[in-house]
Amino acid sequence: MADTTPHRLITDPAAVATPSDEGSAFSLESIQHTYDYVIVGGGTAGCVIANRLSEDPKISVLLIESGGNNEDQLMAQVPILFGKMFKTEADWEYYTEPQTALNNRKLYWPRGKLLGGSSSMNAMMFTEGAPSDYEEWVRLGAKGWGYDNIKPYLRKIEGHVLHNEHPGTTHEHRGDKGRIQTGYSYCGAIAKDYLRACTNNGIDYNPDVNTGTNPLGGTEIMSFIDSKGRRSSSATAFLDAETLARPNLRVLIKSTVTRVLFTSDPKPRAVGIELALGPQEPGRFRAAAKKEVVICAGAINTPQLLLLSGIGPREQLDKLDIKVVFNQKWVGENLRDHPTTGSVSFRAKSGKTLDYLNEPDGAGPALQEWMEKGTGPLTSNVAETSTFFRSTDTKRHLFTTKAHALNVVEDATSGPCAPDVEMIGAGIAFLKHGAEIAPSGTSIFTIFPILLRPQSIGYLKLRSSNPWDKPIIDPKCFSHPNDIAVMVRAIRLALRIGRSEPLAGQLELKPHSTDKEDVFWPGDADPDVITDDEIEAFIRRNAETNYHPVGTAKIGASPSEGVVDPELRVYGVEGLRVMDASVFPNQMSGHPTCIIIAMAYRAADIIQGVVAH
Fold this sequence. Notes:
Number of strands: 25
Family: Belongs to the GMC oxidoreductase family.
Strand content: 15-25%
Protein name: GMC oxidoreductase
Keywords: FAD, Flavoprotein
Number of domains: 2
Shape: globular
Structural class: alpha/beta
CATH class of the largest domain: Alpha Beta
Largest sheet: 9 strands, mixed
Pfam families: GMC_oxred_C, GMC_oxred_N
Radius of gyration: 24 Å
Cofactor: FAD
CATH superfamily of the largest domain: FAD/NAD(P)-binding domain
CATH architecture of the largest domain: 3-Layer(bba) Sandwich
Distance between the termini: 32 Å
CATH topology of the largest domain: FAD/NAD(P)-binding domain
């Protein structure tokens, strides 16, 4: 019987699972801790599903998270500090294989390792993408996940607070009763000047890119922020004190699920999980699931767990002596990310950016304002503004020069109104994932070009059968020539925007700069002089992730087309579902957080039989 006494967070696995010896034979009868549902991963999706399923007091739920409590992390509360969580205990700190197209560099991939997952450590950006992205999913086999299916859930999850400075954002297109709060963070004057400069380059101002009508244009970014100026995450929204007090919900933190347990007669069925405290801790613990195991471990950990549990390509599993439960070629394949070119940094006039916050005692007044009022520059999410445009729209945007012929790009978007490029405008330096600050005595305005629709597709594989070994991650970043071509156009446009008023009046540009090692190159480079080859070389030296891996356990219409069916059930077995970014059939043209939360909310309805799929 599951313990149903009221509780908060649990750190002792013996309180919710049955001790067992590592490698011991599995016997369902030997497991004394049984729940209706066991959810693996208390991240962006897992918190939502745990909340929804435990709304029914007759249903018992165990949620297991590898990381710690989000409330223990100040940086998870102060919006501008999200980058300070990178390479800490709150980060899985993954690294890719050397990327052939990027001068054989290994890329750092941060992923949230705490309650709320990456929703507790990202830039808090609420963007839904284009409606045609979802319709493309349907064409790829994800029946029932079109925009009309997901839109009601995008509104259900959201509690939007209207803002006097944003009259163009109304409740006609926003949710106002949902658990996760949205609004607008701090936006500095120079970032607003960036949007005005964009309008002079064919990127119209759009007060709300999340209406389902027009995802294109420049906008102040809607963010996951509450009325007190703090981050609103899956954990703060769906694992609040009232939810944690439910006697039918148990939440175990700082424990990692090492495999899913199956019975095999007559068909493999997931009946529980095995977990451990860590690689140096002896023993294992097991918990049983009467109804289902739901994996919500993210686009890296979900395929890793499936493979460790025997679901994946037979050839890979046989080499590692892992018993094959179901031969499934798609597990770990179809890895897609949102890569960036790296920061394009412009020298700003003194006092025009937030770089002063990094000076000794520079953040003192801002910290006091945030603590007392929940306002001010510390509520900035860094990515204060952004633009979404199509690299093929040569009538609106000047991507070429008189001296250089227009490079050729293919349209990789999901539809004629969908963007393939995003360019963030940030009134602060963001170098090396925020690890480096502006050079002493300087201020930086950053344009951050992001490829939304990459054609480069990678994979994830097990490094070994040891669950503590990080997997092999190879996104093959910028390996497709069209990806480079699109971003060459984007950077040239970024340089033009930097030379357009009113933004240009806030910058100090050095004409015809050629010092490619300088932090302000290519920002100082003349867009009519710099060559495509020079821009391409910059991308290969500086490209990084924008933190959005998806697709490694994708939805498909059949086992030959995907890992899970449209109801998120894992093909080839019973009693096992997946819900996180790994199920995306293709990459979206927006940031995935709100999409994952909305899908998880709907997934809970599917699991409970509330909606017919």
